[in-house]
Structures are given as C-alpha cells and as structure tokens.
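User: Predict structure, ligand fe (ii) ion.
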Amino acid sequence: MSEYGSKSTLKIPELIVFGTNSIEDIGEHVKKYGKRAVLIYGGTSLVKSGNHGRIVDILKKTNIEVIEISGITHDPDDRTVKSIVDRVNSAGPDVIIGAGGGSVMDVAKAASIIATNGGEVKDYWAGKVFTRPSIPYIAVPTTSGTGTEVTKNAVISNTEKTYKKSIRSEHMIPDIALVDPSLTFSVPSDITSDTGLDALIQNLEGYTSKNSGPITDTLARKGIELAGKYLLRAVKNPDAHEAREGLALASLYGGITLFNAGLGLAHGLSHPIGIRFGIPHGKACAIVMAKVMEYNYPARGEKYTETGMLLSGEKDGIRAFNLLLEELGISTRLGDYGIKHEDIPAIVSESKGGSRNFNPVEHSDDTVAKILEELL
Ligand SMILES: [Fe+2]
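Assistant: Predicted complex:
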C-alpha cells in the first residue's frame, strides 16, 4: 500500500473561520446560540493589545450581553476551573467565548463542559465520563501555537502544580474556532518564538506520528513549510503581518493534525520538562525534538528529508531544525535549563502515556532516559 492508501481521519469543529479581521463577525456567530455570552480571557495582554476592547465593542454592537471572567494565568489548575464553573453557572450564558492563548482556551473549554455535566476536573481525571454536550463554545486564539481551538482536550494542572493532565471528550471540540491572525499582531517576540515552535512541532510530530495519514499529512506539510518560512521572520520583525498570518495558519494546521494524528515523544517529554523547570511548552518540545528525530530516523527518514526541504530547502531535516533553533537562540542542552542527571527518572516517569503512544518508534523508559542523558 502506498502512503496515499493508509488510513486517515479528520475530525474538526462544526465551523472553522480563518482570516485577518474575521473577529468582526463574532457577534453574528454568537447570535446563532443566543444573546448572552460569557467572555473568558487572561487579563492585561488582551486589554493592552486592544483586542479586548475590539471584541467587547463588536459584541455590544450586535446587542450581545457580555459577562466577563478574567485573570486566567499560565498553567491553570483544577481550582481555577472550579471557580470559573461556579461563575459560569450563576451567569447562565447561551455561549462561552475563550479568547487568549492555550491556557485561557483550555480553561474556557473545561468550564463549558463541566458546567453542563457537573463535578470537578479531578472526577474526570479519575475516569468520570462527559455524557452531555457543553455550553456552546467559541475558541478565539490570540497566539499562534497550541491549536486547542480545534481539539477535544484541555490541559489542566493539579492544585499543587506538580503535574498537568488532560480532560477530554468529543463533546469538548469547540463549536466554532475563530482564528483571526490580526489578534496576534502585537504578541511579543519571546512568546511568538515559544508558541510558534509549538505550532511547528505539532505539525512535525503529527506528520511523523504512528497515526499519520494522507489527509493530515497534507495539512502538516503545509504547516511545516509555513513555519519554516515565517517563524523567524515573525520573531525578528513583529510588525510583519504576512509572517503573523502564515504562522496563524501553520498553528491551525498543527492543531488539526495533532488532534487527528497524535503527536510523539517530544511532546510527551515536554510536559514534565516544562512544568518542573518553568520552561514554556513550545521551547520544551524544541529542546528534545532533534534528538527524538535522530531516534525515529529509521522509521521516518523520508519524512524528515521532506521536512528539511519544507523548512529551508535542505535534505537533512534534523540539521534544518537545529539551524532554526540556533537562529532563534535556543540551546538544546538540558543542563542550560538547570536539568541534572538526577532529574531524569522523574521526567521519564511523568512523560508516560499520551503523546508517547503515538511516537513512530517503540521506546522503553531506559531508551528515553538515554536520550535525555545525551542532552544533558
Ligand atoms: Fe504542543
């Protein structure tokens, strides 16, 4: 069977809207569900960028009543979700809008589903199943990275912030993903770099995952090409709107790809590395990605060659990826982030399950520990 004959599925939100200034239509989208919306967002960055005022003005002009819930911080925990669920339930909205980065969109997604199903995040971590649809949810990303606007899971930290774990359900796929690149125009360079690397690596790991197939490969290839062309440009020149637009599209393709094809070992390792050492998610993925590519090479050599060609027109995909990190000023030595030999067992054990299951090459914990040793 050729690569075009392998199994490939595509699950996406009921509606994906992509386009610069597409936020202008958010009132019309909300109206399909009713007139009362809860708007969940982080805080200062949405306000400072002018995006908060922009969204609220549009909603008010469309006669939507807006109830605001703000103050969501990075790595939101189960207690935060609980307090938001309480506020959502007392507001009784027709629709929830989550406008922000991955943390905000995940909290809003979790609150939308728990509000109708009851219980707490912990119950669902322990195996409780969502049986009812969520409150209609519109996800509006303001960074180009996580792709959570098109997926069925939400990553939440435990109260002690010692681990992150997903809750997931088909009922959690946002009803609408509204991806407007103009909302990302004022994202600072460091966040553009961290989130853009996540977008690139979600395409790359999805492209080479065990479950990859022709439908997602098409999106992933384009996502890798767009990230190769625009990531560095958007970081070095934040006002380059074309670069922001290309990166936003790469991020959307990465989200669809990861949801349908799964990811791999780099993502599996990124969670403990990120949470234990305070390293942004995209950067944590990037630090280990090239080593994971070396390990997976026997199974995915052709696709890594294609990756190199798409990224920068060179046949060695690992070299092309490393050169990009060099230009972004990112070290791939774990030691540079304070990670030591004695931290490795915990990282390995906390990386189990999830994304690692989709890595194209089987790997034992000992192998993973060896990969990390080589990166110290
Ligand atoms: Fe990611």
